[in-house]
Amino acid sequence: AQSVTQLGSHVSVSEGALVLLRCNYSSSVPPYLFWYVQYPNQGLQLLLKYTTGATLVKGINGFEAEFKKSETSFHLTKPSAHMSDAAEYFCAVSVGSGTYKYIFGTGTRLKVLA
Amino acid sequence: DAGITQSPRYKITETGRQVTLMCHQTWSHSYMFWYRQDLGHGLRLIYYSAAADITDKGEVPDGYVVSRSKTENFPLTLESATRSQTSVYFCASSLSGGASTDTQYFGPGTRLTVL
Q: Between residues 34 and 93 of chain B, which touch chain A (CB distance below 8 Å)?
């Protein structure tokens, strides 16, 4: 069965520092992976997604993620954190046939320190 | 472009009462989904719908009922609310849902408290 594990429910970084949010997946078939961001009191917004092809995926707001099949990982990074990046981040894998459903990780709350 | 909206945004109710959460999308997306978000669990799928009059259970369907008489609306009903249903509920839609790469678009959520 497919699953997603996000390591670290809370991550704090200083403004300008590297952001690294970890996501590992388990899938018996080639996975399709997504990162979503949730700002306070808002719905989820797609940051980026991996389908096929290039393993380094660039998303909005300067975020990117690299699909590493050998490590079953899809970590999210941003070279320089900004105060506006403070939010909760969810990794998800698309599963199923017919209707593709998401399996979400438990989320990582990012805090950016001035 | 309104996108996907949910109402109410906040709701307080009592145990045993019936509650209906509304979801409306203006994109004519075929697929719609209901999730609940709980601390430590992330988002879990309650029900989904592939088209009008076609619905199916997700991971945690017990205690919930859905209907979809029109493509743009997907109401979620708690027939007899329980405290364990206190949560934040998100509606989402996608163009097809039959493609594994299809993006789901989320509404702003409804925060439900059951006393």
A: 35, 40-45, 48, 50, 56, 58, 90, 92
